[in-house]
Amino acid sequence: MADAKPTIRIQYYRSKIQAPVKHKTVVQGLGFTRLQQIVEREDTPSVRGMVRKIPHLVRILGEDNKF
Hints:
The chain is built from 2 helices and 3 strands. The chain has helices at residues 21-29, 45-53, and strands at residues 7-12, 37-42, 58-61.
């Protein structure tokens, strides 16, 4: 069996309507298409960086510490 890579669950919970264009691009890049959607992404520095750019629009589920 292949090694299971660590993943993080991210929820899109606030609208991007009034957000800058760069923030909208990040939301789309993470794969979100609608509000309240939860996606599971590989836990890499690039994904963490994308989430760090839009903490007011998304949240990481199942993690106690905030970064």
